[in-house]
Amino acid sequence: MERKLNQYMEEHGRLQQQNQELQRWVSKTEKKNGELTIKISSLEEKVKEIQQSNDKCQIDIKQLSTIIEDNSDSFIFNNDQMNGSTPSNSNEVKSFSSHTYIRKRIVPATVASTEQVAFYAYMSTNTQANLRQHHTLIYDVVKINKGQGYHQDDGIFTVPSSGVYVFAWTVAIQTHGWASVEIVVNGVVFGSTFADGTLSDWEHGSGIVVVETHTGDHVYVRMQENGNGVVNSNARGRTSFSGWKLF
Asked: What is d(CA 44, CA 175) in angstroms, rounded to the nearest whole number?
């Protein structure tokens, strides 16, 4: 019995030692997991920073491309030009008075900047009654969309190429209703019109503006204030939105 007891005691000692080793291993593992969790959080933050930096770079590149396009005919010369000296051919790199004159590179025009841009769309049905202020009007029937700038899903025209544009809109109102709408470019109001149908069966309000826009600008028509009644659009009179590029 004494020998078995000693064996049990030795076995118990070994088990205690193994348990202590397992506890130390668990403790190290938990510490390692904590460190890995911190590293993962740090990496996630760095990924977010990289994504934000990438988005900012894309915006900066787009803005830079617009600046280059808008100033592609300008030239850069050194101080000799300021003294009245000019190269014989501004289209080439020339050596003149021991200095080099450099013509700014012209960015080749894209297809979008040279193609014709025009759109016309109208509403297929009347709107809901009493539209709220700043509700964007959506013209779901598109008859022409040269340049693919108008989007019938949200009623917004995205400028495909920089230039001077003409935009026109018409709002139709029936009896006992009225509506004030405005045209907006990148959140800035450029014009508005009002139609009052309280004194007649039908009333139309129309507006037209000429705007200098840049590629990517958003142009849309929205409620200037809360409306009264519905905005009408049917075979008797259409509520419409149109625009075209002058140059």
From this structure: 59
Give start and end residues of each alpha helix (H) in 87-150.
111-114
H-run or E-run covering 18: helix 2-70
C-alpha torsion sign, points 82, 71, 209, 219:
negative
Are 201 and 174 in contact, with CB atoms under 8 Å apart? yes
Provide mean pLDDT across the span 118-144.
Answer: 95
Cα angle, residue 22 at apex, residues 18 and 24 outer, rounded to 5°: 115
Tokens of 114: 């040279």
Q: pTM here?
A: 0.54
Q: Domain 111-245: state its class.
A: mainly beta
Dihedral sign for Cα atoms in the order 102, 108, 114, 117: negative
pLDDT tens-digit readout, 63-111 = 666 555 555 444 333 444 434 444 444 443 333 333 333 333 333 334 3
